[in-house]
Amino acid sequence: MSKIKIAQFGLGPIGIETLRLAATKPWAEIVGAIDIDPEKVGKPLMEITGDTALRGASVHRSLDDLMAKGCPDVIFHTAVSKIKDACAQIEPIVRQGISVVSSCEELLFPQLREPELAVKLDQAAKAGNARVLGTGVNPGFVMDLLPVCLTGVCRNVRAIHVQRVVNASTRRGPLQKKIGSGLTPAEFERLFNEGKAGHAGLKDSAALIAHCLGWKLSELTETGKAVVASRDIRTRHVEVKKGQCCGLHQRAEATVDGEVRLTLDLKMYLDAPNPHDACQIEGDPPLNLTLNGGVAGDAATVASLVNAAPRILKSPPGLLLMTDIAVPCAA
Amino acid sequence: MSKIKIAQFGLGPIGIETLRLAATKPWAEIVGAIDIDPEKVGKPLMEITGDTALRGASVHRSLDDLMAKGCPDVIFHTAVSKIKDACAQIEPIVRQGISVVSSCEELLFPQLREPELAVKLDQAAKAGNARVLGTGVNPGFVMDLLPVCLTGVCRNVRAIHVQRVVNASTRRGPLQKKIGSGLTPAEFERLFNEGKAGHAGLKDSAALIAHCLGWKLSELTETGKAVVASRDIRTRHVEVKKGQCCGLHQRAEATVDGEVRLTLDLKMYLDAPNPHDACQIEGDPPLNLTLNGGVAGDAATVASLVNAAPRILKSPPGLLLMTDIAVPCAA
Questions:
Q1: Least Cα separation, residue A219 to chain B (angstroms)
Q2: CA-based, 20 to 30 A from A170: which of A153, A177, A185, B216?
C-alpha cells in the first residue's frame, strides 16, 4: 500500500505535535506545511519541530506554494475555532482534491451554526473528490462520540448526561488562560458571554448527539460560570489569587418535547480533584460509564486528528461527521 | 424516506425479541420470518410473539417462500453460533440482494476461523449488492468494539486489557446452562475443552482488536475454568449445589512479538457480585474505562442487531466488520 501524503495547516503547538505524531506512523509521508508566520515560512520542518523524522519537508506560505512541491492526500488543519474562518481556509484545499481533518471545534457539527456554509463545503468537497472532518478529543470524542457509541447497545434512549472534569493545572498555558485563570469572576463571565472565553464546542457536541438520535431540539442553552479559587494557586503558566477565577463550569442543556433530555457538564479548572469523564444513558438497558482519570487533553487531541486520516480516506467524499465514518481506532 | 423492510431468520428467544424491538422502530416494516419448526411455519407472527404490532406478517419455511410474499432489505439472523452453519444459511440470502445482520459469534471476525469462507461470503454479498455483519453485545461491543473505539484518542497503544463480570442469575435459562451451572467442575471443563460449553466469541473479539491495531498475533490462547459454588444456589432456571459449577471464568490472551499485549477476561456465574465491564488501554494517553453495572446481556444483544440495520445499508456491499461501519448508535 502506498503511503498517505500528509501536510499540516497551522504550526501552533497542536499543529507541531500533530506533525510529529504523524511522522511516527509507517503509513504517513510528511510533504510539508502551510503557515503565514514570516518567521516560519521557508524554514525546514525539522528546524521548527526539532524532529529529525521531518527532514526534507518545509513550511510554505500558501496552498499554491505547497502544491508546487507535491500534492498531499490529507491536510491536518489546526488554525481556528470559528467555522467561518475554517471554511474560508478549507474550501480551496478540498477543491484541489485534498482531504482535511480539522481541529476546528465548530466543524464537529457545522449544521448547527452555519447550515448554508455546511452545504457549500460539502459540495466543494464532493466536487474535488475530497473529505472534510472536524474532530478532536472534546469536541470529537468524550462528550459526543463516546456517548453516541454507547447508545448502540440500547433498545431505546430517554436521556443522556455527560460530565467531564479536567484538572487544568496539567494543561498548557493557552488553555489555562482560555478558562479565565486570574480574572475576576465577573470579568470571566462577561468574556464568556461575549464568546471570548470558555470552551468551544459544547453546544456542537450536544447538537451532534441529538442529530444521531433523531432528537428535534426545541431548546439548546449554554451557561458558563467562573470557578473561584479557594486559595492562591500558581502553575508554570499563571498565578491566581484566592477569590479570582481559576477555571470554568460550563454546561449545555437540550430540551426535546419540553423535557431536558441531554446535559453536558464541563468543569475545567486549576487543581481540580478527581479528573474524569462520565456518561449516563437513561435507556434500556441503562448504562453508566466512567473514564477514571479522564482523557488527557493535548495528547488525545493530536491522536484524534492523526488517527482519523486513514478512516476518512475510506469514506465517500463530502463533509463528514465523526459518527458517519468508521469507529475511531489507533492508526 | 421509505421504510427498511425487515425479516427474521430464526425464532428462538433472541429472534423473537429482535422482531419485537424492530417493530417499534418507525423506520422498520416487518415483512415476515423464516423458521424450520413445523409448529411455527404458517403461523402469524402476532400469534408467536404476542405483539399486535406484528400483525400481517407470518412465518415461512424457507427463503423462497418468504420472497414470494415480498423481498426484505435486511434479515436479522439469530440461528447459530458456528460460522460454517451461518455461511450456509446466509450465502443464499445475500445472493438475493438481502443484507444480513447476524448474531453468529464467529461472524464477528470470520477471517479468524474460516478465511476462505469469509472470502466466499464477501464475494457472494458483493455479487448480490448486499451486506453481511456479525454483531451483538459480546462479541460485538463490550470486549472488542468499545476498546477499539477508545484507542482512537491514543497516540500509540502498547497493550489492551478487558474484563467483563456478568451476574448470570439475571440472565435467561439457556445461558445459565451454557456456563455449566450444576455440572461438576471437571464435567464443565471437559465440555469446555470439547467446545460444547462456554462463551462463544472471545478469541474472535481478540482477533478483531488485533486486526484493527495492525497487530500480528504470534499466539492466541483461550482457557476456561469452572467457578465453583461456595453455597447452594437456586435460580428460576437451575439449581446448583455447593461444590458444583455455577459458571465460568474464561480468558483469552494474545501475544505480539513474544509479549502478551491483549487480555480478555470474562467471568459469568450465578450471583456474581459487582457485575461490570472494564477496559484499560496501556497507551499514550493511558485510558481506564468502567461500565458500572455492566451492559445487560439480552436487551443489549437485541438492540445491537436492530441498531445495525440502518448503518449497514449506508456501507458499501460485502462482508463488513463492526469496525468498518459507522459508530454504533441507537436507531
A1: 22
A2: A185
